[in-house]
Structures are given as structure tokens and as C-alpha cells.
Design goal:
This protein is mainly α.
């Protein structure tokens, strides 16, 4: 399985790159050790290729501070890019952030 994923990653397939990033973020049965910096690197590459899921995952990383220092501006930026590309959960998160900030109309 890993050979197939790496082949697609080498072909710049954004979905495969995002998937591999997730494998590094969580550790995986594919034999990868957990490596948040590698995950963020892969998600950034996939986001540059247009992956809304990668933008969403980067947004979550900045929102929670799990793998990077918390940065709400960067989280919102990536959620907005994901939402504009049709990512529903990113859109939900933006609404929730606005709600928590007291911006009910925008939420």
C-alpha cells in the first residue's frame, strides 16, 4: 500500500499527499511513526496543489496548537480557503469561531 501512496505522492496527487500527511500526524499501520512536522509539510504541499482537506487540517493544527504554535489568524485563513473550496466542516468551524467571538450575524 505504501508503494502505491508514494507513487501518487511523487505524481503530485493532492489527495494522496493529504492522506500521507494524515498518516504522519496520527502514526499509521503503514509503518510510519508519528511526525507532526512532516504532516504539516505534506499538508502545506497539498494545500498549494489545491486540496481543501489539507487547508482544513492545517487550520485545525493552528487552532488547536497540537503540532504548531496556536495561531488563530492562520487557522482562520486556512479554514476560509478550505470553505471557499467547498469544505463543509471548515465552514462550520468559521461559524463557530465567529459565534464564540460574539459575531452572531457573521456566524
Amino acid at each position: 500500500m505504501m508503494k502505491k501512496v508514494k507513487k501518487r505522492v511523487d505524481a503530485n496527487d493532492a489527495n494522496s499527499i493529504t492522506f500521507l500527511g494524515g498518516c504522519y500526524a496520527e502514526g499509521s499501520p503503514l509503518g510510519l511513526r508519528q511526525d507532526y512536522s512532516k504532516a504539516l509539510e505534506l499538508w502545506t504541499r497539498a494545500a498549494e496543489l489545491g486540496s481543501s482537506e489539507a487547508h482544513y487540517r492545517i487550520g485545525v493544527a493552528y487552532l488547536t496548537g497540537g503540532s504548531v504554535e496556536k495561531n488563530m489568524k492562520k487557522a482562520i485563513h486556512h479554514f476560509e480557503l478550505a470553505a471557499m473550496a467547498g469544505h463543509e466542516t471548515a465552514r462550520h468551524n468559521l461559524g463557530y469561531i465567529e459565534y464564540k467571538s460574539g459575531n452572531m450575524e457573521r456566524a
